[in-house]
Amino acid sequence: MWSSRLAAVVCAGALSACGFHLRGDASFPFSSVYVNAPTAKPFAQEMTRAIGAGRGAAVVDEAGTAEVVLAIPSVVDDKDVLSLSSGGSVREYALAKRVQFRLHDKNGNDWMPAGEIVVRRSYTFNETQVLARDLQEQRLLREMQTDAVQQIVRRLQSARKPT
Known about the structure:
Layout: H1 2-17, E1 32-36, H2 41-52, E2 58-59, E3 68-84, E4 90-105, E5 110-124, H3 130-156
Parallel strand pairs: 1-2, 1-3
Antiparallel strand pairs: 3-4, 4-5
Helix pairs in contact: 2-3
């Protein structure tokens, strides 16, 4: 009994000493943002939800009323063959999601440099389970989108007003 409590206290002390802490809610240095992603509506919707879940920034419907604009001009999904079997059939695929973004104000001043997020995943392919492969690929693409959104949210937290 005492040994398990002692172990818990030691673990808690070790974690706090190394600087570990939970991520928590995102807080942004701007008060309002407009998400401009005309070619990627599902990505824009998830981005809007993620920013709205944070603290300090409201997502608005018009660029003119926002303090900053998050421009997402390109969201591209790529799929490449990663490996082949000895018979020449596909064994593994590699998926990549590339998201370009830029955060600027009404005057075009950058709050942070334009950037690109690239998320990669791979999966094995079995020709006898084509339906399962399609479902797995769609699940991976959704997870990659969520990962890209979270990476952009973390970068938005470090944005700074131009001087």
